Amino acid sequence: KRLILIGPPGSGKGTQSAIIKDEHCLCHLAAGDMLRAAVSAKTPLGIKAKEAMDKGELVSDDLVVGIIDEAMKKPSCKKGFILDGFPRTVAQAQKLDEMLERQGVKIDKVLDFAIDDAVLEERISGRWIHPASGRSYHTKFAPPRVPGVDDVTGEPLIQRKDDSAAVLKSRLESFHRQTQPVINYYSKKGIVATLHAEKPLTDVTDEVRKVLS
Ligand code: AP5
Ligand code: ZN
């Protein structure tokens, strides 16, 4: 299967990706995770992306399209993939269509993580991540076994620099202005499934499984 996950910051894209990628053996291509890795490795691309990310603005289409195009060439992505956080603009969606056409494949489903903005601050402020794997936890909704420590590796968890109330506001603005139109783009193709993303984590997983079955 080839899936796209679209939703505002904190809506649960990364959390559900981690579950379905294992169940369906899909490769998980998370634009934000790849960008954060480039920023912390201080690659030329990371240096270019950092300023926009710190402000909660979108990184330029060219940079992100380049990363995704490269990542999709991995042999493990041939059977199927989850695009988490890409495309986020209509221009990115059009570029993706061109890439897929070249490969002779199509997107099966677009999962739209519908959720009220008001819920997202609590999601974001309680989030702790394990940067190397992209696993995320939540102090209230999905606590790690030992506070501040990754369940799998025992390594320390960190909070994301852009997970402040002020930066969340600008991330939400970018979402509504630039990414919401992408949902309409795919609605016209008849492949969007809308999820109740404000529900508890396991309920959302059930909805995702139903859509994919
Ligand atoms: P990115 O990393 O993609 O951030 P985002 O879209 O803002 O999404 P998040 O990762 O914050 O949220 P999520 O939906 O994955 O939530 P999660 O599952 O962790 O992008 C970061 C930045 O990179 C962007 O701002 C931009 O600058 C740049 N960028 C990325 N892609 C780009 C692109 N295509 N073009 C241009 N720029 C780009 O869940 C959140 C928390 O809630 C967790 O703690 C989790 O445990 C908890 N939780 C999850 N589900 C539930 C539930 N159902 N109930 C209760 N708690 C839950
Ligand atoms: Zn995420």
TrEMBL record:
<comment type="subunit">
    <text>Monomer.</text>
</comment>
<keyword id="KW-0418">Kinase</keyword>
<dbReference type="InterPro" id="IPR000850">
    <property type="entry name" value="Adenylat/UMP-CMP_kin"/>
</dbReference>
<dbReference type="InterPro" id="IPR006259">
    <property type="entry name" value="Adenyl_kin_sub"/>
</dbReference>
<dbReference type="Pfam" id="PF00406">
    <property type="entry name" value="ADK"/>
</dbReference>
<keyword id="KW-0547">Nucleotide-binding</keyword>
<feature type="domain" description="Adenylate kinase active site lid">
    <location>
        <begin position="127"/>
        <end position="162"/>
    </location>
</feature>
<dbReference type="Pfam" id="PF05191">
    <property type="entry name" value="ADK_lid"/>
</dbReference>
<dbReference type="GO" id="GO:0016301">
    <property type="term" value="F:kinase activity"/>
</dbReference>
<dbReference type="InterPro" id="IPR027417">
    <property type="entry name" value="P-loop_NTPase"/>
</dbReference>
<protein>
    <recommendedName>
        <fullName>adenylate kinase</fullName>
        <ecNumber>2.7.4.3</ecNumber>
    </recommendedName>
</protein>
<comment type="similarity">
    <text>Belongs to the adenylate kinase family.</text>
</comment>
<dbReference type="InterPro" id="IPR007862">
    <property type="entry name" value="Adenylate_kinase_lid-dom"/>
</dbReference>
<dbReference type="InterPro" id="IPR033690">
    <property type="entry name" value="Adenylat_kinase_CS"/>
</dbReference>
<keyword id="KW-0808">Transferase</keyword>
